[in-house]
Amino acid sequence: MEKKLHILFLNGWYPSRVMPYNGDFIQRHAEAVAIKNKVTSIHVITDDNINNNLEIEKKQINGVTTIIGYVRPTQNIILKAYLFYKAYKQIFKLIEPYQFVHVNRIYPIGLIAIYLKIFKKKPFIVSEHWTGYLTHNIRGLEKFFSNAIAKNASYICPVSDHLGSMMQKNGLKGNYTTIPNVVNTDIFKPLKIKNKTFTLLHISHMGDQHKNISGQLRVIAKLKEKISNFNFYLIGENSFRYKPIIKELNIESNVILINQIKHSEIPEYMNKADLLIQFSNYENLPCVILEAFACGLPVISTNVGGISEHFPDNFGTLISKNNEKELLTSILIFHKYSNAEKALIMHKYIESKFSPPVLCDKFTSLYEQALLRINK
C-alpha cells in the first residue's frame, strides 16, 4: 500500500536499550500511524554504558524507522546540551524528506518542532501523556516555552479530555482535540483461559504515591479475612520492593510478585485474571484499563482523571479515591460474578474506539487538515 505522508515523530520518551519500556505507548501510536503513513521516530537519551561521547542506532521496528541517539552522561549542563544538539544534528542527516512533525511530550522536545516550523516550514501536532499537569502547576521557563509550543502547534492532542482541561488550567492555549492511547486488539482479546482460583491483577510502574500499592495491599489483607482462596498478581518494575509490607500484613501466600514483563505477555495474565485493580490517586486514561476491557476483563478503578470518559457502566466499577472499604466491598461483589458473556461486547467496544486503524485515521485526518490550512 502506498503511504500517504512521511511523519516525523519527535519523542521526549521512547523505548531504548537504556529504558526498554519508557514511553512504549508512544511507540504504539507511531506503529498505528505507520499503517497508512511512513513514520520515522527519533529520541535521544543518556547511556551510562556508552564508550564514546555519542552513538546513533537506526532500526526498522514494526514498520517504523526508529533512530535513537545515545550520549555520554555528564553533570556539566553546557556539555550535555552540546552532546544532545550534536546527536540530533546527526540524526536529522539520516531522515528522509518528511511532510509533518508529531511531537510527544510538549516540553522540551517541542522546541525542536518550533525550529522546524519556523526554518523548515514543517507544521506539527503535539500528543500529551504527562500526568504532571494533574499534580502541580508548571512555571518559569517551562511554562514560557510550553506556551510557545502550544500556540505554534496545529493541534494539541491530550490522551483524555481531563488532561486537556488541566493543561488549559496551566495556561497552555491552543487548538485541542483529544486522541486517546491505542490498544492492539489483535493481541488484547478474550482467550478463555481463566484460572480456577479467584485472581486479582494489578500492572503498573509501582509508584506508591501515584498507584497507591500500599493501599491495595491493605485491602488484600482485609480480603483474606473474608475469603482464603485467591491470588493477587502484582506486576511491574520494582514490585519486589513491597515484600516487607506484604510480610508485615501476612499475605505472602496470596500475593505473587512479578517484575517488568514484555507488553506482548500482558494479555495472557489479563485473560487468566478475574479482575483488574486500579487504585490510583491520579491518572490520565491508563492503557492498562483499556487493554483489560479488550480482553473482557472487568476493572475496579478509582474515579480519577479521564478514566470515567471511557468506562461503560457494565464493564466494572468506579470507586472513590483512597477508599479502601469501597475497594474491598467491590472485590467481594465481583467474587461471585462471571463476566464471560460480556467479554466479546467489551472487546468490540475497544476495537471500535482504540484499535490501531481507528487511531491511524484520527491522526492522519489531523495531519491532512493542518497541511491543507498551510497550503491554502
From TrEMBL:
Alphabetical keyword list: Transferase
Name of this chain's protein: Glycosyltransferase family 4 protein
KW Transferase (keyword) present: yes
Gene3D superfamilies listed in its UniProt record: Glycogen Phosphorylase B
Record keyword Transferase present: yes
CDD domains: GT4_PimA-like
Domain Glycosyl transferase family: 185-336
An annotated Gene Ontology molecular function: glycosyltransferase activity
InterPro entries named in the record: Glyco_trans_1
